[in-house]
Amino acid sequence: MKQFMKKKTTFIILGNLLAMCLVAFLLIAGIMLWLDKYTRQGEVVVVPEIKGFSIADAEKYLYLKNLQCIISDSNYVKDKPVGSVLDYTPSAGQKVKKGRVVYLTINRYSVPEYPVPDVTDNTSVRQAEARLLAAGFRLAMHEMINGERDWVYGVKYKGKKLTVGDKVPMEATLTLIVGNGTSRQDSSIEEGDVEEGEGYEYIPDE
């Protein structure tokens, strides 16, 4: 009987010890989790809204929020200030750690240039207009010259005739050089510039 009571007492003591250890473990784990969450709250910041900011203003504002920034890309938007922030990652409202790098996409400082489609002496005016407009260019009034009607003989930008491969600013205004339907030979005849030769006889004025 005494042996049984002794064993029972031992089990009770061991059970209490295990329960105390379990409670202590859970208490310590809870405190650690709370401390970790509490300390991390001081390390996390919310990314602010900086779209439209200049690079300098964006950099200063992010610095005050304990964030850094790097220009990672650029695009061109005509109605936005040059050098302004168009987009960024992480975006506004996201929670990040202090010191996180914010990657900026800015509006280019210069208008991008693009090659002009080759429409010289190989297409009609209607086809040339369609190709140039589709490429994002604008068109001024045509410059008419003697030649096959509605045939494109060249393209000009600011008075300069372009060659294949030339680049001009996006949305530049171009001028097509177009034939007016009068051949060069017909024009010279009308102006009296007839060369002597077979089929023509020069008769001086009396």
Describe the structure.
The protein is rod-shaped, with a radius of gyration of 41 Å. The C terminus is likely disordered. The termini are far apart. Strands 7, 8, 9, 10 and 12 form a five-stranded mixed sheet that branches. Strands 2-5-3 form a three-stranded mixed sheet, covered by helices on one side. A two-stranded antiparallel ribbon has the order 1-4. Strand 9 and strand 10 form a beta hairpin. It is 33% helix and 25% strand. The chain is an alpha/beta fold and 206 residues long. The protein has four helices and twelve strands. The longest helix is centred in the first third of the chain and has 40 residues. Among the domains are: 64 residues, Trypsin Inhibitor V, Chain A, CATH 3.30.10.20; 77 residues, Trypsin Inhibitor V, Chain A, CATH 3.30.10.20.
Major pleated sheet:
5 strands, mixed
CATH T-level topology of the domain at 113-189: Trypsin Inhibitor V, Chain A
Task: Look at the structure and give the mean pLDDT.
Answer: 84
Q: What proportion of the residues is helical, as a percent range?
A: 25-40%
Question: What is the highest CATH level, the class of the domain at 113-189?
Answer: Alpha Beta
CATH architecture of the domain at 113-189: 2-Layer Sandwich
Q: What are the segments in which pLDDT stays under 50 over at least 5 consecutive residues?
A: 191-206
Order of helices and strands: HEHEEEEEHEEEEEEH
Shape designation = rod-shaped
Strand content: 25-35%
Query: Strand pairing plus helix content: what structural class?
Result: alpha/beta
Give the helix tally.
Answer: 4
In whole angstroms, the N-to-C terminal distance is: 163 Å
Q: Report Rg.
A: 41 Å
Oligomer: single chain
Total beta strands: 12
